[in-house]
Amino acid sequence: MDSPIAVIGGTGRVGRLVTRQLLALGETVRVIGRSTQRARRHMPAQAQHFTADVRDPGTLRTPLHGCAAVVYAVEPGTDAAGPDSPESTLYGGVRHVLDVLGAAAAGRHFVLVSQRHVTRRDHPMNAYGRMLDWRLAGEDAVRSSGLSYTVIRPGWLTDEPGHGVLHLEQGDVGDGYVSRAHVAEACVRAIGSPAAHGVTFEMRSEAGPASGPVPWGELFAGLRADAPTGTRAVFV
Ligand SMILES: NC(=O)c1ccc[n+]([C@@H]2O[C@H](COP(=O)([O-])OP(=O)(O)OC[C@H]3O[C@@H](n4cnc5c(N)ncnc54)[C@H](OP(=O)(O)O)[C@@H]3O)[C@@H](O)[C@H]2O)c1
């Protein structure tokens, strides 16, 4: 791409894999996060670091200016109240990014890393600051923004290298583990794959031996586009 790609949470465990994969493809990458110390420890020298906080929209304007795509992989706190609450990081933060991108965002792509279970309000994860409710609200904000987008819902994350057979699913009914490496690759591939635009999907790896390169084109082609409901995905 001619313009930079912003990775919000690019010093995190998924984000840094996204950053490395984008750099390997020759992209210019802007890593956005709060901690310069974490950036020094985890960021490749070729990436540009911008100190910014999704809870403070004023800090996002410079790093997001002119970006061709945004990957949002921010980890929330688990208390219902307080500065890191799921409401502020998974919903408020997403709204701030969308607002800052604003009308200038036409032609740009937003990849949101969400999570499986997000539509199941009675799941135990929702006891942590209504994490699932706020994630779903963040998803809905992206889907109704008018932007080109991909919403990725990983199952439980592992640090194993990508292994076994990868499944992309829709409807949020199953469960399972998936490697951060596969999630990062999905984020990167989704940006340039029209079949992955306007879709919401879950990810799960089936245990087993390495099965070779992931057939992303085939997997994305098997996905249904979200219904244009305005505020809610068809599966919610
Ligand atoms: N763990 C699981 O099993 C699981 C399952 C499904 C989905 N997920 C989700 O997958 C995503 C990626 O997970 P991960 O393991 O890569 O997380 P991680 O390693 O904890 O990284 C989180 C990133 O978020 C950034 N961040 C946190 N608060 C921020 C803020 N207010 N403004 C800007 N950046 C902020 C952090 O950087 P700074 O601290 O420098 O700001 C860090 O780079 C998260 O949303 C996670 O909840 C996790």
Q: Quick summary of this structure?
A:
The chain is an alpha/beta fold and 236 residues long. It contains 7 helices and 10 strands. It has one domain: NAD(P)-binding Rossmann-like Domain (Rossmann fold), CATH 3.40.50.720.
Would you mind describing this structure in some detail?
This protein has 236 residues and is α/β, with parallel strands linked by helices. The protein has a single domain (5-221), classed as Rossmann fold, CATH 3.40.50.720. 30% of the residues lie in helices and 20% in strands. It has seven helices and ten strands. The protein has helices spanning 13-24, 36-42, 61-64, 86-101, 131-143, 180-191, 216-221, and strands spanning 5-8, 29-33, 48-51, 69-72, 109-113, 148-154, 156-158, 165-169, 177-179, 199-206. The chain has an eight-stranded mixed sheet with strand order 3-2-1-4-5-6-10-8, sandwiched between helices. Strands 7-9 form a two-stranded parallel ribbon. Helix 1 links the parallel strand 1 and strand 2. The longest helix has 16 residues, at 86-101. The protein is globular. It starts with a strand and ends in a 15-residue tail after the last helix. The mean pLDDT is 92. Bound molecules: NADP nicotinamide-adenine-dinucleotide phosphate (NAP). NADP nicotinamide-adenine-dinucleotide phosphate (NAP) is lined by residues 8-9, 11-15, 33-35, 38, 53-55, 73-75, 89, 113, 115, 154, 156-157. It comes from Streptomyces fuscichromogenes. Residues 9-194 form the NAD(P)-binding domain. InterPro entries: NAD(P)-bd_dom (IPR016040), NAD(P)-bd_dom_sf (IPR036291). This is NAD-dependent epimerase.
